[in-house]
Amino acid sequence: MIPARALSASSSPSSSSLRRCLSSATRNSFVDRLRDELTEIEAAGTYKHERVIASAQDAEILVNGKAVLNFCANNYLGLSNHPLVVQAAASTLQDRGFGLSSVRFICGTQDIHKQLETAISAFHGTEDTILYPSCFDANAGLFEVLLNKEDAILTDELNHASIIDGIRLCKAERHRFKHMDMKDLEQKLKATQHCRTRFIATDGVFSMDGDVAPLQEIVALADKYDAQLFIDECHATGFLGPTGRGSDEYCGVNGKVDVINSTLGKALGGSTGGYTTGRKEVVDLLRQRSRPYLFSNSLGPSVVGASLKVFQMLTESSELVDKIRTNTHHFRDRMTAAGFSLKGSRDHPIAPVMLGDARLASELADEMLKRGIYVIGFSYPVVPKDQARIRVQLSAAHSIEEVDKAVDAFIECGKARGIINYGMLFLANKLQRCDRRSRNWLPILSQVLHVCGKGVQTKVADTDSLPNRTQLHSSYNYTAINQPLDLVTAIHHGQRRLHLLSAISPSLQHRHYLPTRCRNTNSTRQGPTSPPVSANIQLLCPSHFYLLPQFMMFLECVDTLRTSRENLGILLNQGCMRFT
């Protein structure tokens, strides 16, 4: 009989081999899963490649050995490589060293840290400020300190990821309200009146759209329901508002926001660092219990010294704030006039150029780079599906000539891709001068569309008769057919129902999106002289239809479509459409 110890010893090598095999198989399965996921991301056209720059961050940077204009940085005030800021960083580096190798409450607080916190408080008009390694850390360390299961947080559904993650760490009730929807927010406030403290959390400016939160209305609701208000000002501090104090100044609610988080890593020099500013009691409690503050090293002295210089510059002069506002208005006005659809506030330097299709956004960004303009395409999951875009970010470092160069490149690429609809632009301007009550719009519309069609599709024969659908299909592939020509065809045949043919490639024709709220939309209301009109509407792949903001102006002028206008507006806000 073999002793148990001997049996155990003899079986041990095989057991170890089995464990190693199982472990290896598990590792291989894990790696294979990651590879499959990466393949799916790349196939969807959403893989994020990192372009490497070989220069300082500025209006002009070096990419792949080529000088290009940078229109995708958060360098709103052009301070990332400003000589005064660089000099202040270098001077502080020499005087106070490279780092502190400590957290704040041990030996990581220098006098300049306290000076910076005082300067930030003075800038925002608050009682006290606490510094963090980043605003992500500031958002992560805020809510769990101030709130618990007796409280509630009401958060905008499009808030930044750092706010979402910070709220997840908190035990308070969580309620998401629809993006900038004050009725929904009020409903959530009514539903949480049993809670001890309620915190409304919102971005001051939403980074993907460039839209500003309606802070006046939010403040009014906070006062009405005795709630606290928190805003994230990362894309507002330093440049939004008359003196650059942020979205609270822009909306006229200075001093009415309870807690403000922001960053030193965007407009204020672009290095690193974040902060929370507000009431002294809030800041004091954060110093005692906020984990990212307690367990992270202090900000490096050079960052602190440079940031002090930035706040000094902003306090002494509004030159940079005025410059970024001028550049922003110039870019937005020219792009809109060219036929592009831009989201966001006209006063904000985030200018999303809406394209809809992820691959189109990525490819258009590549084409822009070839023309010396550095921009990035954003798509799902960073933005909602079918809302892909190129997010342009203006800077005070840009000259007007550089802004014009970017617009010209967009127009050139837009024409090549069939994105810009010059015919609809011309049509909108023409119809604006028509009497909206007149029944004589049809011949005017037909004539204008004919001219527009010839201007856009130069291959159309210059004849007195309008091109019919057969001629269109025989002369062009689907990607070449333009909406005004199709509209001409429909009107030329005297049809009561408007037909706007799809201008997508055959390979994309299977992609249909029909929202439930708009399914089988039929008009039943009739005016005294207007014939009934029905419009069954389907959303198509948005790569060729997204940029038609002037189409709503057309609808305003066409009496027989007035009953469908609301539904059409819903679809236009999402992108491409098709009438049948």
TrEMBL record:
Keywords: Acyltransferase, Pyridoxal phosphate, Transferase. Residues 68-410 form the Aminotransferase class I/classII large domain. One of its GO terms (cellular component) is mitochondrion. It comes from the Eukaryota. Residues 1-20 are annotated as: Disordered. Its cofactor is pyridoxal 5'-phosphate. One of its GO terms (molecular function) is pyridoxal phosphate binding. Pfam families: Aminotran_1_2. InterPro entries: 2am3keto_CoA_ligase, Aminotransferase_I/II_large, AON_synthase_class-II, PyrdxlP-dep_Trfase, PyrdxlP-dep_Trfase_major, PyrdxlP-dep_Trfase_small. GO terms for biological process: L-threonine catabolic process. NCBIfam families: 2am3keto_CoA (TIGR01822), PRK06939.1 (NF005394). Belongs to the class-II pyridoxal-phosphate-dependent aminotransferase family. This is Aminotransferase class I/classII large domain-containing protein. It comes from Hyaloperonospora arabidopsidis (strain Emoy2).
